[in-house]
Structure formats: C-alpha cells, structure tokens
C-alpha cells in the first residue's frame, strides 16, 4: 500500500524534483505540495498524511514551526541545503535529512528508513485508524474518528463516543502505549483525549462535546504544543 | 528520469558538472530541459529578491535569499556557483551590516548573471538537440 505524503518546499525546482522521485518510487502518493508553512498547515490539519518532505527555511515560518503546530505526528524527512539543523532534526524525531540536491538513490535510502519505521514494531504501538475493544462479550470496532476521549475507572476504562459509552477491562497506562499517538494524547492520569475533538481550552480544563476534562499541570504545555494556535 | 533514450551525447557547458547532473537525472535530457527551464524562472525571480534585500540593507533577508538560490545551482550542476553562494551566505550570517558584504555582493551578482547565461544557452542548445 502506498504512503500518503505532502511536500513543503518553497523552491519550485526542488519541489518538482521531489514529486518526480515520489512518483518514480511507486511507494508514495503525493497529496499536495506547498510553498509555505501557512498553506501547508491549512491542508495538514484537515487531511492526514503519513510522511512529510519538509524544507526548513521558508518564508514566514520554518519547517520546525510547522511541526510544532500540526495536530498529529507524521513521519518527517527534512529537505534542506544546510546541515546545522541536525540537532533540531534529532529533537523532532525526524526520519532522515536530505541535503539538496540529492540523488534518487539517496532519496530511496531515506524512504527506506521511513518504511522500516512503519514496520511491525511501530505497528504494535500505532494501530492505524481504528481499534477493537472487548465489550459486552464481543469485540467491538471503534474508529479513532468516533472516539471523543477515554476515561479511567480503576481497573476499567470508558471509551466515550458521541453516540455511546463502552466500558472495558483495561488501564489508561496500557492504552497510552497502544493507541494511535497521531490523534490521541494523555492529558491527565485519568484521561486520554482525541486531539481532533477538542472544542476549547480554558486554564487547566478542555472541553469535548460540552464535557469538561482536566489537564494535568505538567502536561498542559505538551497539549498546547499539539494544537494549531495562530 | 524517464527510461534512457538513444540520444547522441550532448556536450554541456564546461562549467556544468556533467557527471553530477547525470547522477541526478541520468541521461533524461527532456527532464534536464525542464529542470533548466524551471531553474531559470526561479533564478530570475530570486535575483530580483536579492537586489531588493541589498537595496533595503536587510542583511538577514540577503542571507535567506542566498540560501534559497544556492540549491538551484546544485540542481543544474553548476557546483562552483553553488559553493560561492554557500560562502556568501556564511559571510552574510557573520556580517554586522550590509557594508561588510558590498564587494562580495557585486561578485555574487556577476556570478548569477553568468549562471543564468550558461543555463539559458544550454537550455536552448539542449532543446534543439532533443527536438
């Protein structure tokens, strides 16, 4: 299956070359290419991609600022003509670093690092766009998009959707390790929330569908980092 | 990056590193024409931005525009030009003001003119070669 990707690159010749490399690889589907962070963020916060080819120095804002403001965590390959960003790249868990211009062989090498990250070990902690939970004696499929939040109830947890609540034997700590971290985040010892469902945040609480959920003081900054705040 | 075609070998300008160009695009001359064309457009646009940055004495912008132009020469095999721009970018990063880089800016301007001229000439010759 092809990975969805987006290219954020202000130099046209570099963006065109990347598109060619992606097409030639037959492993990637380019969902869009954007010359600046603003237009990329507008797209990326409405559409999910698996991989970003991200330039660092662009007009208005840097590639790292884009990563600070995106609500999920796609894999990232930095494309730049400077090597000084290696430390930041490490901090942002970037898969690889392509120094422009790069050969097609080097491109494939970087892509190989991403696909190996998508392998079985990564899959165990990132189950994709849905999960199955045991509830009422059966396995029930819940799409990530339908889950508003998950609340701890001691040895049990409650999955809350807009339609229904499901109680199952599990712990928040265990779920935190297994859920898709692109859209879910632990915000309190008793709560994991779907980041895409937050309606608003006031001081140390957030609201989803009118329900107030506390945010731990030590996690507040991390929560805000995952939001697009303009 | 299309499958190699049975063209005769095209002789690029001696300042273009042909081996490097082929390492990027193999002998896909049609694609190289596209790259040269796109690079010429970008060079024209960014050279104007560079002049604006210099005239407004904005050393930070001068550095940023230089940074953006630099890989254009990489993509077109003009590696000496790319190296000179790397040095100029570094100079701008360390300079206190525009007056510290005036002479080098003039040199860079000449380099850009030469680069554009080489690319334009090879773009025309290569277009004719493959037609």
Blueprint of the fold:
The complex is a heterodimer of chains A (230) and B (131).
Chain A: E1 3-8, H1 12-25, E2 28-34, H2 37-44, E3 51-55, H3 63-69, E4 75-80, H4 86-91, E5 96-99, H5 104-117, H6 120-125, E6 130-135, E7 138-143, E8 147-153, E9 156-161, E10 165-169, H7 172-178, E11 184-188, E12 191-194, E13 200-202, E14 205-208, E15 211-214, H8 217-225
Parallel strand pairs in A: 1-2, 1-3, 3-4, 4-5
Antiparallel strand pairs in A: 6-7, 8-9, 8-12, 9-10, 11-12, 13-14, 14-15
Helix pairs in contact in A: 2-3
Chain B: H1 18-25, H2 29-55, H3 59-75, H4 79-94, H5 102-130
Helix pairs in contact in B: 2-3, 2-5, 3-4, 4-5
Which labels suit this protein?
heterodimer, A: 230 residues, alpha/beta, Rossmann fold, OB fold (Dihydrolipoamide Acetyltransferase, E2P), 2 domains, 5-stranded parallel β-sheet, 5-stranded antiparallel β-sheet, 8 helices, 34% strand, B: 131 residues, mainly alpha, Four Helix Bundle (Hemerythrin (Met), subunit A), 5 helices, 0% strand
CATH homologous superfamily (4th level) name of the largest domain in chain A: Response regulator
Portion in strands of chain B: under 5%
Q: Cα-atom Rg of chain A, whole angstroms?
A: 19 Å
| CATH architecture descriptor text of chain B | Up-down Bundle
Give the DSSP E fraction of chain A (strand runs of 2 or more residues).
Answer: 25-35%
Main sheet makeup of chain A? 5 strands, parallel
Secondary structure tally: strands of chain A: 15
What is the rounded Rg of chain B? 16 Å
Main sheet: strand order of chain A: 2-1-3-4-5
Q: Which word captures the global form of chain B?
A: elongated
The proportion of residues forming helix of chain A, as a percent range, comes to 25-40%
In sequence order, what are the helices and strands of chain A, one letter per element?
Answer: EHEHEHEHEHHEEEEEHEEEEEH
